[in-house]
Amino acid sequence: MDFKDMKFKIAQGADRGLCRKACGRQDRQLNTYDWLADVPGNNDETDLVEVQFKNTRKGYYHNVNNLDLKKGDIVAVEANPGHDIGVVTLTGRLVNLQLKKANIKSPDDIRRVYRHAKQVDMEKYREAKAREHSTMIESRQIAKNLGLDMKIGDVEYQGDGNKAIFYYIADERVDFRQLIKDLAATFHVRIEMKQIGARQEAGRIGGTGPCGRELCCATWMKNFVSVSTNAARFQDISLNPQKLAGMCAKLKCCLNYEIDTYVEASRRLPAKEIVLQTQDADYYYFKADILAGLITYSTDKNMAANLETITTRRAHEVIQLNKQGEKPLSLQADGQQTAANTPIDLLEGADISRFDKAKRRKNRNKQGGKRPQGRQNPRGTDFRNGGNGHQHGEYRKEQRQQPRPSENAKES
Q: How far apart are CA 132 and CA 150, in angstroms?
């Protein structure tokens, strides 16, 4: 069978990307790029499916009933107790790789897919979801009355409404045994407590960062690592807490994105404590452009004075000369000053009005007809007698000086 004759069904609401069967977008949180979506028989190799629920919760289940499941289907899965409602996010052999990432080794941890969600299941699911916000507000008041130093950030009800997961934030260990009893007595459901961090809460709420893009923790970031102020120091970023803090009031995760590149590039730079000696003055470290390999030195140790910018290679050459007891004439190579980088003007010498259209003369004959035969020369210039076209003003002046016949008749 020819590959061109094969018909692929495109998943609704998904980005096709490089696959014809909609691989899904990689910049969405918890999304797995299904690069095997085009492979025929991919779903026949395993009965495991990946199901996503509210927030960042995922689960892996056996399709024991051999249901025709594809990405985006809403299914009812086994839970403890009852059942839960989720969305299928991945099928096929890539589910086995996700199991290894999730560190799921015991077969007992993998439950079953019951069925496609029915209308009755969806009605119970909507009723349970409608109670989540009011439950969160009331549970916060209960925790406050007990004097617990914690914040309940979100509540997630199970699909059948028999269980509720309370996500909370706490800096220290909290004894919430009495809280669980009060919550169970108030809401009449099974209670489960899960602790999350400040960055995870910001990802659940969402927002826009100072860069103008959606928060990384709300889109593609899944694993959170610690961020220290050393990352800002390596990149020569000002240690301003207001600029370094993100929406979660913690240091921005993006400070770690380029830290490895900066650390590797900074190893090529000489130590900041080394003083460069020349015949005219001694130069002290002032600042550096790490990625460009440029270092700026000053003749004053505490302030900017007579700044000189040289390359890393030139700095090592001067240091080597100083070790040999020699002093160059200046920091610049061969005593020449490096030319400043001036911006290139692509429109230099070009007229800005070169694309303007020439103005057209307005047609004075508003009637649109042909001019009469007697007005072949409206400017009054007699070209037949050798006129050069500059007698127009004189001709008009003579006409104004001559009196009209009607005026002469009245005077007489």
A: 18
Q: How far, in Å, CA of 96 to CA of 82, rounded?
A: 26
Contact (CB, 8 A) for 209 and 246: yes
- In a domain, residue 345? The reply is no
CA distance 86 to 83: 10
Of the residues 151, 170, 196, which one is the last residue of a structural domain?
Answer: 196
State the CB neighbour count (10 A cutoff) for residue 267: 8
353: its two tokens: 């009005």
Q: How far apart are CA 193 and CA 170, in angstroms?
A: 12
Give residue-wise pLDDT tens across range 19-36.
444 444 444 556 677 778
Last residue within a domain, chosen from 61, 93, 117: 117
pLDDT score, position 412: 41
For 389, the token pair is 């076209």
**Domain interval for residue 307:** 276-335
> What residues are paired with 277 via a beta bridge?
282
Cα(87)–Cα(70) distance, integer angstroms: 10
Residue 183: closest CA among 150, 148, 136, 151: 136
